[in-house]
Amino acid sequence: MKKIKLSMMSLLTIGMLLVSCNDDDTVNVDLTGNLEVSIDGLDNLGSDFQYEGWLLVDGTPITTGVFTVNDAGELSQTRFEVLNAVLDSATKFILTIEPVPDNDPAPSDQKYLAGDFNNDTAVISTSVAPAIGDFSDISGTYFLRTPTDEVPGDANNGNDQNGVWFGLPGMPPMANFDLPTLPVGWIYEGWVIGDSGPISTGTFSDFGDRDSSNMFSGMQFNDGPPVPGEDFFLNAPMGETFPLDIRGRMVVISVEPVPDNSPAPFTLKPLAAMVAADAETAPTAHNFNNNTSLTYPTGMVTR
């Protein structure tokens, strides 16, 4: 009999938690609702990272749950159960990239997409803060030159087709990117598509300074100009033959997460250019193309 009384008390307690009365004495038993997420263009992050959604309520991010994406771009989950009080009060949706396992309950610095709610929907993109930034009106130039194997004061050695640098040629070269300054958690990276795949020229956040790498450069006489870029003389990756002729190859500027989920270029490739087979070397500058309409994810969330 005692067990029966305890069970009845438990049922009564649960019922009191699930049932509430408003000012009109009507009963509301729906404590949770669904958030529908639809995003195109997301990459498979591999086994060490995952995506996580967040709703911003009074300035506080509240998780909606994590999901992964397969090689076909399909989300592992598109419907997430969330408290109605959170859904009703949310002003913004934010998508982040999180490590696996994730020991930090707060959002990572890798805030990828975001969108403000307009009634029950939010259109999400990289352009809405605190996401990466607006890439709708961007530009940049590159030039072909190999300064790292030249003896200072001597004439050009005539092999400028083996190096690519980002900016305007000159004495010294100058920065010439019209790109947004990236928030914490993201960095730019240059690439040349070689015979066996993408070859990194290094990461950078300052357009008017050297990047993080010169592992392929000559380095006999100097470290290169004060702009990002690379000469391709030493330490050829497997499948590549150096010196590497840049002409006839694709050159790309990508946006990479920090920490990076892959040694290959990330989804976001704002600038790209196919170098002409007969492209002139420095002092000629060549223009990048705005590539964002092809590589940037977009989507919508509905509450």
Write out the strand line-up for the largest beta sheet, numbering strands in chain order: 5-4-7-8-9-20-3-6
Which spans of ≥5 residues are poorly predicted at pLDDT below 50?
1-29
Query: What is the 3D form?
Result: elongated
Number of helices: 3
- Structural class, from secondary structure content? mainly beta
Helices and strands, in N-to-C order? Answer: HEEEEEEHEEEEEEEEEEEEEHE
The percent of residues in helical segments reads: under 10%
- End-to-end distance: 46 Å
What's the total count of β strands? 20
Amount of beta strand: 25-35%
Largest sheet: 8 strands, antiparallel
Rg to the nearest angstrom?
26 Å
The overall pLDDT, averaged over residues, is 89
Q: Kindly give the count of domains.
A: 2
Topology:
Blueprint: H1 2-18, E1 20-21, E2 27-28, E3 32-40, E4 49-57, E5 60-67, E6 79-83, H2 84-89, E7 92-99, E8 111-118, E9 121-124, E10 139-144, E11 163-166, E12 177-178, E13 186-193, E14 198-204, E15 229-231, E16 250-257, E17 271-274, E18 286-287, E19 289-290, H3 292-295, E20 298-302
Provide a descriptive summary of the structure in words:
With 303 residues, the chain is mainly beta. It folds into 2 domains: 29-131, no CATH class; 139-295, no CATH class. 9% of the residues lie in helices and 35% in strands. Strands 5-4-7-8-9-20-3-6 form an 8-stranded antiparallel β-sheet. Strands 10, 11, 12, 15 and 18 form a 5-stranded antiparallel β-sheet that branches. A hairpin with a 2-residue loop joins strand 4 and strand 5. The radius of gyration is 26 Å and the shape is elongated. Mean pLDDT is 89; it is low at 1-29.
